[in-house]
Amino acid sequence: MLSRIKRDLPELEQLLDETNREVYEDGIYRYYHTSFKVYGLKTHTRKIAKALRRLAPDKALRGLCVSPFDAYFASFWNVAGRWMVETGAQFRMALHAGPIVEAFFHARYFLEMVVKYGKQLEAPPQCLPSGWAAVLCLYNLR
């Protein structure tokens, strides 16, 4: 896991920087402004999830798992995306914005932890910091 993170660290750092510079502030503002533009967070969340998926253990990459992520994390994404597949669904702030923001926050958190521990750790630690333990949980490794 750690070797995959280190392999992709420059790209992950760039994605985190982009998230913090260009997406985070405006996306959360859009939520409080009750703007449909909060939907833009979903596109960026998908981008983060794609980068995190590339870090998944080999068995997940070979397609032996439905999702490389734990069920709890996957559920945030499923709720945020469910309304899109409904025929004729229209964006309703009260129903759709919260799950979109929640999925974004969780994806951003895991991206931040992957970058943080990819920079800090040289080897898997014996005593797990909470953020690293959360990353392992994300991939069902803990």
What does this structure look like?
By secondary structure, the chain is an all-alpha fold. About 70% of the residues lie in helices and about 0% in strands. Helix 1 runs antiparallel to helix 5, helix 2 packs parallel to helix 5 (about 95-120) and helix 5 (about 95-120) packs across helix 6. The longest helix has about 30 residues, at about 1-30. The protein is globular and about 45 Å long.
Q: Roughly how many Å is the radius of gyration?
A: 16 Å
Percentage of helical residues?
over 70%
Q: What is the CA-CA span between the terminal residues?
A: 12 Å
Q: Indicate the low-confidence ranges by residue numbers.
A: 83-88
What is the count of structural domains?
1
Overall pLDDT confidence = 83
Reconstruct the topology from this structure:
Elements: H1 2-32, H2 40-53, H3 58-61, H4 71-85, H5 93-120, H6 130-138
Write a compact overview of the structure shown:
The protein is mainly α and 142 residues long. The protein has one domain (2-138).
List keywords for this structure.
142 residues, mainly alpha, 6 helices, 71% helix, globular
